[in-house]
Amino acid sequence: MIRKICCIGAGYVGGPTMSFMAYKVPSIEVNVVDINQKRIEAWNSDDLDKLPIFEPGLKEVIKKVRGKNLNFNNEVDKAISEADMIFISVNTPIKKSGLGAGYASDLRYVEASARRIAKNATGHTIVVEKSTLPVKTAETIKKILFSDDQQSSHKTKKSFSVLSNPEFLSEGNAISDLAFPDRVLIGGEDLDAMNKLKEIYLNWVDNDKIIFSNLWSSELSKLTANAFLAQRISSMNSISAICEITGGNISEVEKAIGLDSRIGEKFLKAGPGFGGSCFKKDILNLVYLCRSNNLDQVADYWQKVVEINEWQKERIYKKVVCNLFGNVAGKKIVILGFAFKANTNDTRESPSIQIIKDLLQENAEIIINDPKVSDKQVFVDLLGDENPSQEKIYIEKDVYKASIGADAIILLTEWDEYKFLDWNKISSIMNQPAWLFDTRCIINKKEINNTSLNFWQLGDGFTNQIN
Ligand code: UDX
Ligand code: ADP
Predict the structure, then answer these.
(1) N or C, where is the chain less crowded by C-beta within 10 Å?
(2) Mean pLDDT rounded to a whole number for the chain
(3) Residues in CB range of 335: below 8 A, 6 or more apart
(4) Residue 402 alpha carbon to ligand 1 centre in Å
(5) CA 299 to CA 304: how far, in whole Å?
């Protein structure tokens, strides 16, 4: 029976996942630990609107369990030593330099966690990989755990089982994905440990949705799932460009092919390119795995999914510049949406970042509106931590104020609030000729027809545009 859980890493994965687990299994004490003191303070904030992560339904869950069987703290060693089961949910960014730079995951945080577990664990501990990791990382974790164990085994009698239990939740839907998962995947070799983890999930997940596999299949399944989803998006984005030149409409194509039950309707929305912390990273990981094992054709195949994604962002930026007479210098461009998708304040790999950077290179003046992303985050993403210069970048929380005197609006995140704007009012306060670029296909064309706006909608060969 598992009585105490420790989760290392209070981020986008660890925070919501552990909160939900604590909520569903009151008999287990869950300690979420992090080396980032500010993050822990934010998770402990009295004002639940100040939690470090915005997720619909999350604050309600936290309100019910925090201080009861869910604690956020930075006593990492203590939480490790008391735990029967430890989840590793630390960040695994792409390496910026060295071997595999630009492709391989930086495993320093995973390794540091494993070393800390090796040192501080007591008795038998089940260690669960929760972060998305390169295939064979469990092997590394095992080596670290068992080497320390061997050295001190006589004194402390510690032992470990390593499991892989990838998280498939998507941001903005974290709580419903956790509550109603399509499947829960548990990879491992120790059936007893696998069953212990399964017992926890059985508190709210049906037995037939919990599947077992070996460790490597589990790690690879997570990378493959993300690569497949991203591939669908790149496929649709490539078709969106064909629609624009042939007079097709990407939303109509999406509907028509999505009704084929073999294809299915999900993840077929064309847009400004996929963002988020996982898709690009996981595909590049897959590419690295293939190249390191002389599977160059396979590597090239998956690499193209990322290349199309980069091309889509560039294509959109060029469309904007071309339609504004090839010149955006000194022009006011409003950006609607900075998060990588709606219903999250996460900006990691957001397509907005690259598109805005390209427009800044053209000396445009950028006014950014996003309902959830903090001003600080916008500046960090666009200018880096150190550069305080905010020249040409403005943030405006009111879309109407942002639009005064603007030459163009680019809609980049599909927030609901952007679907119900008064476009007549907006066009009347913009600088004419004014443009609206809808890269998420959420604006009803009919509403724009009554305004003086020039309208470009992604993947629509009928709207007014210059190619
Ligand atoms: C993804 C996976 O869905 C999830 O299973 C995994 O655990 C983590 O990575 P997430 O990054 O939160 O989740 O977001 P997701 O909803 O998958 O969207 C990723 C990106 O694809 C976003 O930028 C989104 O705007 C874009 N997208 C998604 C599209 O452009 N079109 C679509 O049809 C769906
Ligand atoms: P993810 O999206 O994978 O959850 P995040 O970056 O949101 O990634 O969160 C990962 C968290 O892990 C961060 O808050 C970071 O401070 C924390 N972390 C990284 N290394 C360690 C470590 N060795 N011990 C404890 N926490 C760690």
Answers:
(1) N
(2) 94
(3) 352, 355, 356, 366, 367, 368, 369, 409, 410, 412
(4) 28
(5) 9
- Interval 345-362 mean pLDDT: 96
The string of pLDDT tens digits covering residues 328-337 is: 999 999 999 9
Angle made by CA atoms 365, 395, 412, in degrees to the nearest 5: 75
By most ligand atoms within 8 Å of CB, the mutation choice from 37, 78, 90, 222 for ligand 2 is 90
| H or E element in which residue 436 lies | strand 435-438
CA distance linking residue 173 with residue 266, whole number of Å: 14
Helix (H, G, I), strand (E, B) or coil at 245: helix
Expressed in angstroms and rounded, the spacing between residue 11 Cα and the centre of ligand 2 is: 6
C-alpha 164/C-alpha 219 separation (Å) is 7
Distance between Cα 132 and ligand 2 center (Å): 12
**Helices (DSSP H) in 121-164: which residue ranges?**
137-156
pLDDT above 50 for 190: yes
Q: Which of 6, 278, 290, 441 is catalytic?
A: 278
- Rounded to an integer, the average pLDDT of 279-287 is 95
pLDDT at 233 over 70: yes
**Span 288-325, pLDDT tens digits:** 999 999 999 999 999 999 999 999 999 999 999 999 99
- pLDDT value at 151 more than 60: no
The pair phi, psi for residue 336, each rounded to 5°, is: -95, 105
What's the rounded Cα separation, in Å, for the pair 295 and 342?
Answer: 36
User: Cα separation of 112 and 57, whole Å?
Assistant: 32
Closest approach atom of ligand 2 to CA 277 = 2
State the Cα angle at 86 between 89 and 280, rounded to 5°: 20
What average pLDDT score do residues 114-126 get?
96
Look at residue 439 and tell me whether its pLDDT is greater than 60. yes
Which residue has a Cα nearest atom 7 of ligand 1?
Answer: 168
The reply to whether the predicted model has a pTM over 0.85 is yes
* pLDDT > 60? residue 62: yes
Any catalytic annotation for residue 7?
no
